[in-house]
Structures are given as C-alpha cells and as structure tokens.
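Example record

One chain of 244 residues, shown exactly as stored in the release files.
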Amino acid sequence: MEEKEIKIQDIFKILKNEWPIIVGAAITITTFIGLMSFFFIKPVYQANTKVFIGKEDSYHTAYNNSDVIMYQNLLKTYSELMKTNDLIRNAIYNENLDITPSEVSRTLKITPMPDTQILQISYQNHDNMLAKEVLVAVVDEFMKESKELIQNGTVIVIESAVLPEYPISPNKEKNIALAFLGGLMIGIAIVLLREYIDDTLKTKEQTEKEMEIAVIGMIPCEGKNYKKSNDKHVKKTIRLSLNE
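Predicted structure tokens for this chain:
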C-alpha cells in the first residue's frame, strides 16, 4: 500500500469533525495545570535591594573618572565576595536564621548594573518574611567584610529591602494560558496522528485507488454511530468487482 497522503483541505475537515477531542485535550491539560498552580505549587517570594559601591567619604573627597572606572571594575569582586559560604554562614549565625548557607546561595542573585557602581541583589524563598530577613542579613555582613578587605571602599544601601507581598511564581495566568495553547496543540497532534495511522478505507475513491478495482455498490450503516458528513460514512459492506 502506498504511503498515505493528507491534503490541506482534508486536514481542516478532520480537525472540524474531531473538535471534541481537541477541546477535551485543551480543557483537561488546562484544568490539571490550573490545579497545580493554585493548590500544589508553593509560591516563591523575592526580596530586592540595591547597594552603591564607591570611595569612602566620597562626598568630601575628590572623585575622578579613574576612581569610577576602578569601582566599576571591582563590582565583580564584590559580587563574588557576597556569594562566599563564610559570609553567608556568618550572616545567618548573626541573625539566628533557620536556614542553611547552601539554601541561601541557591537563590541569592547579585547583578552588577552595566556602566554603574551599583549592585542589584535579590533573594528568593517560599517564606516572604524569611526572604527579606536573609537578604538584609547578607547585605549587612557584606558591608562589614568588604570594608575590611578593600581599603577606602564603601558600600551604601540605596534601595532598602521591603517585605514582598506578592509571589513572583507561579504565574497562574501565564501557566493557564500556556496550558490551554499546549492542550490545543496536543489535541490536534492526536487527531492528525490517529488519522495518519488509520489505514481503513472510508470512501469509494480510496477503495478504487488502493485496490485498483471498481466499486459497483455500497451500503451505508445508519446505526447510532452514523454521521451525516459524506467524509465520515461508515461502510458496512463494499461490493467489489475486478477491472477487466
């Protein structure tokens, strides 16, 4: 038997006739993802702060372009300092926080802002209060240790951490929208795959093409599964005669 071909117009007819499967797949997957997002996935809160890295007593001391470039280049050094286990461990110990250094470093993010002397620091946790407390503790310890390591350098908090009120994840609306679109695509794929692997003969033209014989008569089945669409007739009996 020749490889089955499906024309574009046939695809639209198939999708139209099998729309319950497509919609059902979309609703099922959307419902599942929605339940997961609302009831099973724990929310994640993010606390943020910003610090300025500069010269000590910069308000009263000459501050030239080379100083700016130097401190911009030092941002990476400051970033790595804040990620060290010893610094994080000291911060946790000083504030008596119930969390491990590995848990903190996993979601602690330090981002040097381009062409500035500013570090943006964020920390994520399932507990919004703990997220703020950990971030404040780490920044306080960082300010103390950085002053000891880098002479004449100073760290100033320019944007204080606040208690995050709303979680950053899961994004319920986005998850549901993506689940619905994904469900539609899966439903369409299922319908087209079923049609492609279905090798039964459904029409007179298919029978004549595949068997290379003429159809001289057919009796449609009009039971409970009968559909009015010409493309979906179920042939109960097909009488064939050999071509001469």
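Notes: The chain has three domains: 1-41+170-199, 45-159, 201-244.
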